[in-house]
Amino acid sequence: MTTKITYKAWRVNAQDDQYIGSVQSLNTADLPEGEVLIRVSHSSLNYKDALSASGNKGVTRSFPHTPGIDAAGEVVESRAGSPAVGGSVIVTGYDLGMNTDGGFGEYIRIPSAWCVPLPEGWKTRTAMIYGTAGLTAGLSVQKLLTMGASPEQGKVAVSGASGAVGSVAVELLAKLGFEVVAISGKASQIEELKELGAQEVVGRDTLAENKKPLLKPVFAHAVDTVGGNPLAELLKQVRPGGSVSCCGLVAGAGLATTVLPFILRGVNLLGVDSVEIPLAEKDAVWQKFAGDWSCPKTEAAAKDIGRTELDSALKAFLKGESSGKTVLDHSK
Ligand code: NDP
Question: Residues with Cβ < 8 Å from 281, sequence gap 6 or more?
């Protein structure tokens, strides 16, 4: 029998081409089919949530809809052997918060195959400080390491450094001993980025459009979170044999480059997807963040907000004004 529980969610309604989010009372009986019902204690704010909440049809096709691509909480019903009732789980990606009601509601119902057990000793809030953004930063760094990146090879650039993905990448790379150059458009974040471990913070003009097909190679490797023209410019500045992981598109989905960085310098462009990858790959990164890869500064600096603050926090993402990590606490 399906349990009927009334709960609160920040839900987006479409009205005359406007997308308006508000806190509403819903019932778990109206959640989609799925083997596992989870009481969500925390979610995490991501750029994709801002796209969903503003009616981006590439993310969310139909409304009303509850965004939230991340959720962590306790299993309250399970029709699968695993996870068991009472267990704590992390859910990120797949269809959560896109066309399946997501973590901005106090309850989600999802397939068991989307649930990663919360690492031993971790709290659900800690998992959501990292969220999809942290997971993506971890996967981006993992890709560089898999290609043989090591600190003695030289500087590693991080673009969109003050953002949710970029800031975790900065702290993690610095923790692993890399000399990190944070590329940021926010003069106000210079001190914070240095505090996270960046040795240098440079402006976005470092990646300003330049007609030359190759530039002086200054970076051994890079984590790019912005895509578009800045990524094309970054590729021109990577040293022979270097790697660039690419996960984002805030500066554009297009990539106008020549093949020269690839064929004259052997630069590797590495795609990063945190959404559809196998659960085991997500689990491996969560275990690392709960262990050697912990980012204490990111954890300490995370901001907690309640549902009524979601609207303005999501709009800041769309304006490129957000920084660091923001956690949605359903008890606030
Ligand atoms: P944020 O909005 O938190 O950060 C993006 C940062 O990029 C901003 O803080 C800003 O940093 C910089 N920025 C914003 N606008 C521009 C612009 N027009 N030109 C250049 N830089 C800009 O987003 P996230 O960190 O959460 O996500 C970053 C990207 O990664 C997004 O495109 C997101 O969709 C994508 N993503 C992809 C995933 C995947 O699985 N592939 C998973 C998670 C995210 P600063 O001011 O410091 O320059």
Answer: 139
Is 189 in the same domain as 89?
no
Number of domains making up the chain:
2
Nearest CA to ligand 1 atom 29: 248
Among candidate residues 137, 39, 134, the one with its CA nearest the CA of residue 89: 39
CATH of the domain at 42: 3.90.180.10
Global pTM exceeds 0.90: yes
From 183, 250, 303, 317, mutation site for ligand 1 pocket: most ligand atoms within 8 A of C-beta: 250
Opening angle at CA 230, ends 227 and 233, nearest 5: 120
Q: Does the residue 185 lie in any domain?
A: yes
Domain boundary among 271, 288, 317: 271
**Model pLDDT for residues 115-147, shown as the tens digit of each residue:** 999 999 999 999 999 999 999 999 999 999 999
Structural domain range at position 236: 133-271
Within 6 A (CB) of ligand 1 lie: 46-48, 132-133, 136, 160-166, 184-186, 189, 204, 225-226, 230, 247-251, 272-275, 317, 320, 322-323
pLDDT at 243 over 80: yes
